[in-house]
């Protein structure tokens, strides 16, 4: 088995021990908080076992499919788990949607995507591993379109629809995208592949969604990457603009090197050409959804709310032994609404509005506070282990900014060298989350401002180097540059904190960093939240709000405490 394939399989190496009796227990925090489960999240989606496939919105219901081994904690017998929601926050787990039962998927129902066909008929294209262990692409459709939850799916007798032929390596051919219809009424779909060492998205076309022809050229390929997993291709609109197919720009995302990278360009459906503005891994313009832990993401279009939603898989940063002990591994990011930023060059992401319903009445509200040089103050009265924090900084004059060295091209390396303990001029300033009382444990999310020859450079870091007194953890300091001019704009930060995950959105969502954190002291009620400034110049907090967050309800159908919720709120 190839190395790349092994990586792909790791996504589903999960849960130990909890499955046996009752999944429902996992959502009752009281059973876990005090009993050795300090890292269990409370409002992030965790399937019974992990990893996502195609999210979809259909007739008022959000569907999420994920990779699931019903028999064991080791990889194998991969099926499509299925959960539904009315609000993207509270979820009900349903029965398995796809089982590996046929020659074309007997060795696993791997990842894929959903497409809504004309006449409101959903269809799933997914990768099956067949009797010869080849990766092939298959089609499944709902058995009963009158079932509002689309619980049962049937595979078409025409499967496999796409098989590896000629130059396609059967080990590197997977993860079909959502398909789209061209103005010529012909369907198109992309499949991730690696040919001659190059990562690519192979393009297929079909008139009937069953017989697919491969086009002469892939939609796009790269000599700088290997296999592309979970490709995604979609039109993108600006804020408050409705997604308008073929008139707006298109985003192409590919998952490689444990990261989700994207590029922006113009797509011509007549010729199926994709004219890009910058390429994958270009120096200085490498665009990523998230500069922390975030992989194998997918988007879908929410036709009711007219928004595109991005959802990523967030793995653990502890050891496999730790995962076995805690009995689970991996979770989903909070769904993010994505739009093309004002610059037109990059995306802007923001947690879906629905998550704000979990904000409780406990709120810390602060305006116009000066944070003096080298100072820290505590944000009190909220549950710091389960919180939503929004802050706006005004740095004032920029005369004192440190000079930016043009050789600093890697923001992660810069955040590692200039971690939160390294004092600066303008910055580091930001938040200390999941911190212990004496600050011996702290995850610092902060900014530094530098001056280069022609502009100011804003660096955002999520520094886990002091996040836990425990050993055996990856304590990376993640970094990203934020595309904003601090002369003209205030610097904002929002962090969603949920026990062992911190999702941070800098510059109103222009740069995002997700981190996994496993404190030893700063757990549950022992967790604290601070704002800090270790720069030599004071900064002002124009506004800071922090909310305690309620837990979401994420349970199997039979364990629901209320009827299928969401609607009544
Ligand atoms: C797959 O499922 C079969 C039962 O159908 C079971 O015997 C086998 O151990 C499973 N394999 C894995 C790796 O879970
Ligand atoms: C299809 O689903 C509807 C709604 O749940 C149900 O009333 C009907 O009996 C189902 N039909 C079949 C053939 O299962
Ligand atoms: C696929 O190829 C067949 C045979 O060459 C052709 O008849 C058909 O029109 C093609 N379909 C599409 C969608 O290009
Ligand atoms: C922070 O960075 C400084 C300078 O690069 C280094 O000496 C120190 O060990 C780092 N601290 C941590 C906790 O990694």
Automatic annotation (TrEMBL):
SMART domains: Glyco_32 (SM00640). Belongs to the glycosyl hydrolase 32 family. Residues 44-351 form the Glycosyl hydrolase family 32 N-terminal domain. PANTHER family: BETA-FRUCTOFURANOSIDASE, INSOLUBLE ISOENZYME CWINV1-RELATED (PTHR31953). Residues 1-20 form the signal peptide. GO terms for biological process: carbohydrate metabolic process. This is Beta-fructofuranosidase, insoluble isoenzyme CWINV1. Keywords: Glycosidase, Hydrolase, Signal. InterPro entries: ConA-like_dom_sf (IPR013320), Fructan_Metab_Enzymes (IPR050551), Glyco_hydro_32 (IPR001362), Glyco_hydro_32_C (IPR013189), Glyco_hydro_32_N (IPR013148), Glyco_hydro_beta-prop_sf (IPR023296). Residues 354-548 form the Glycosyl hydrolase family 32 C-terminal domain. One of its GO terms (molecular function) is hydrolase activity, hydrolyzing O-glycosyl compounds.
